[in-house]
Design brief:
mainly alpha, Serine Threonine Protein Phosphatase 5, Tetratricopeptide repeat, 7 helices, 73% helix, disordered C terminus
Amino acid sequence: MTINEIPVSNEELRVMLETGYILREAAKFDDAEAIFRGVMEFLPESDVPQVGLGTVFLQRGDFSAAEEVCGKALELNPASIYARVHYAEALLFSNQREKAESELREIIGNNPDSPHSQTAQALLEAADLISPV
């Protein structure tokens, strides 16, 4: 039996994703990573579990892995503001400030009423607290 043959409802996948986010916030990074990787198997065309995995790497401080994973999520769904804001966040913490700021400002400009724009704005404000290396 392959993973694609296991019947899983959308509701079960939603609960798994929420569990991954809860585990991430509880600093249970290995468990959160396992959840997101598992959901990626069930939803290979969705950027959501990939970005979830990317946020685990962000929380761990592994910014290059976060950039890679969020970048792949963005390739999968170029219209995903969710993937884009976390990709920009990874860039910011990888000391690619100019590229990150450009991405964040574009998110805000194109989607001013989006909650992701609020996150982008908060990241820009936080960037002012980070001194260049």
